[in-house]
Input
Amino acid sequence: MSEERSLWQQLLTVPNILSALRLLAVPVFLWLLLNQQEGAALIILAAAGLTDFLDGYFARRFNQVTRLGQLLDPAADRLYILCTLIGLTVSGHVPLWLTLLIVARDVMLLVFYPVLASAGYGPLPVHYLGKAGTFALLYAFPLLLLAHVWQDASFVITPIAWAFAFWGVGLYWWAGGIYILQTISVVKNGLLKNG
Output
C-alpha cells in the first residue's frame, strides 16, 4: 500500500501532471491530424511542446524529479513523435523513409531493454544527445505541419523544419549508438563481476 501511495504522490507533482496531460492528449492529436484538422492538431502539438519544457523546468526548479516522471516524460515524447510521424506520413507531408528511420532506432533500442533487465539493470539514463535529437524532432514536426497550414510562409518554414528533422535523426541515431555501447559495457561488466 505504501508503494501505491508513493506512486500516487509522485503522480501528484506538477511536472508529472503535465506529462500525464500530454499523454492523454496524444489520441486527440492523432485523431485531429488524421482527420485533416491540422490547425487544431498544431495547437495541441504546440501545447505539448510547451508542457514538455515546463515539466522539466518545474521538476528541476521545485526539486520534483521522480522516477515516474523520468518514465512519463520520454514516453510522452516518443508517442508524440510516433503519432506525428504516422499522421504526417499518411497525409503525405513526410516521406515513409523518414518514418522508418526514426521508428527503426526505437525498435532497435527496445531489443536492448530485455538484455539490460536480464543483467539486473533498468533502462539506461537518457543521454543528452538523445534529448537534443528529441528536441530537434519535436521542433521539426510542428514546423512541417505549420508549413502545410500556413502555405504562404512555407518557403521559409519548410527548409528550417527539414534542417531540424535531419539534425534530429542524426542525433537520435548517434545517441542510439551510445546506448548500444553502454548496454554492452554494462552487461559485460556485470558478467565479469558475477563470473
